[in-house]
């Protein structure tokens, strides 16, 4: 079992994903999914629910968050990988929020088609790989992102098993 200190969530509403345009590193100025860092003795699930609420005011019950695996990064030969826990949820109409701006960045809904556009350079590059796969089945995956000096080189998918 992996115990990374970071979490990230794909939050969907119809054909849109709630994204954050960060105003600090990493991914400063790029659209990415919402996430954060665990506090002492906090589970990854508790962390992502808290982070979503703190950053967007959305209150998402834990039962709605689906564990979709982990995202790791480094080079292909890295034995010690950094990573984060990945969650997914789909919201209904009454939960949708409008644009929010705070000290973390700007939050708004972006159409999935716009995010996945191959020439879209404003989105964190590994997000596209995750979004293309996350809906396929009920399995958990490790998405290992291989970066070199010129950016993202590849994302290797490894099945971790079914959701519980």
TrEMBL record:
Coiled-coil positions: none
Family matches, as CDD domains: NUDIX_MutT_Nudt1 (cd18886)
CC terms in the record's Gene Ontology section: cytoplasm
GO molecular function, one term: metal ion binding
Residue ranges of domain Nudix hydrolase in the record: 1-140
Keywords of the record: Hydrolase, Magnesium, Metal-binding
Pfam families assigned to the protein according to its UniProt record, in alphabetical order: NUDIX
InterPro entries (alphabetical): NUDIX_hydrolase-like_dom_sf, NUDIX_hydrolase_CS, NUDIX_hydrolase_dom
Record-linked SUPFAM superfamilies: Nudix
Bilayer-spanning residue ranges: none
Cofactor(s) required, per the database record: Mg(2+)
The family this protein is said to belong to: Belongs to the Nudix hydrolase family.
Protein name: NUDIX hydrolase superfamily protein
Species the sequence originates in: Alteracholeplasma palmae (strain ATCC 49389 / J233) (Acholeplasma palmae)
């Amino acid at each position: 079992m992996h115990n990374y200190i970071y979490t990230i969530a794909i939050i969907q509403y119809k054909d849109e994903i709630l994204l954050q345009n960060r105003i600090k590193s990493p991914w400063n100025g790029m659209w990415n999914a919402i996430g954060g860092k665990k506090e002492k003795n906090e589970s990854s699930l508790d962390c992502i629910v808290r982070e979503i609420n703190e950053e967007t005011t959305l209150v998402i019950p834990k039962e709605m968050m689906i564990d979709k695996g982990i995202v790791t990064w480094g080079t292909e030969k890295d034995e010690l990988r950094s990573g984060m826990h990945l969650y997914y949820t789909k919201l209904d109409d009454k939960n949708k929020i409008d644009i929010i701006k705070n000290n973390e960045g700007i939050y708004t809904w972006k159409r999935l088609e716009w995010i996945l556009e191959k020439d879209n350079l404003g989105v964190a590059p590994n997000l596209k790989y995750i979004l293309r796969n996350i809906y396929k089945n009920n399995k958990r995956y490790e998405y290992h992102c291989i970066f070199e000096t010129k950016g993202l080189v590849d994302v290797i998918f490894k099945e971790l098993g079914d959701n519980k």
